[in-house]
Amino acid sequence: MSRDPRRVVHELVDAHGRTYAEEAGIRMRDAPQPLYRLLVLAHLLSARIRGSVAVATARALHEAGLRDPRRMADAGRQERVDALGRGGYRRYDERTAAQLGDAAGLLTERWGGDLRRLRAQADGEVPELRRLLREFPGVGPAGADIFLREVQRVWPQVAPHLDRKALVGAERLGLPGEAGRLLTLAGPTEPAVLAAALVRASLDSRVAQDVLDRAG
User: What is the Cα–Cα distance from 78 to 27, expressed in whole angstroms?
Assistant: First the structure.
């Protein structure tokens, strides 16, 4: 069945257009704390664990007061492990607890705890941003891409940003695998929202099928 691609994009965004930051309760602003919380979320989401568990764990870390790099670095490893466990993030808890502490220390020492300084060092260039983000322990290529997809909401230098994972979601829905064409189909939809919705379709066949059913 041939579906109208604009209708498919509309149904995708309407039903699944929620960023992961929103789901984790992060009110995105170009300010140190929400940017740091997004970095932690990207770290958690990049592991081979359910997205819902990563989101719940990001909330648990925030509720435990581990919401800025200095507090994260100063916390004992067991405190971090306990917070990870409350979020359900048990498979990698010891390693992740150590990585979060090391990453927070790096951010504090090198950029004064402020990811805007990292952005300034990269001069807003996406390849350099990706390289610097990958220097944080536990972030890696997947985590850097997650951060960039979500941060484009408040870092216009990054937008529009649809990475390979988002394009895989587009292909699963029978949509063009080219960022420019997808953005045209999406009209006024924010690139960060479109990217998150496409990624959800790439990760979950049920999301893709739901969208296709809705689009007729």
Answer: 28
Alpha helices in the chain (DSSP H): 5-16, 20-23, 32-45, 51-63, 69-74, 77-86, 93-111, 115-122, 126-133, 140-151, 164-172, 179-186, 191-203, 205-215
Do residues 70 and 113 lie in contact, with contact meaning Cβ atoms separated by under 8 Å? yes
Q: Do 91 and 49 touch, CB atoms closer than 8 A?
A: yes
Predicted TM-score (pTM) of this structure? 0.94
Residues 6 or more apart whose CB falls under 8 angstroms from that of 22 comprise none
How does pLDDT run across 146-192, given as a tens digit for each residue?
Answer: 999 999 999 999 999 999 999 999 999 999 999 999 999 999 999 99
Residues 6+ apart with CB under 8 A from 91: 47, 49
Rounded distance between C-alpha atoms, residue 210 and residue 188, angstroms: 23
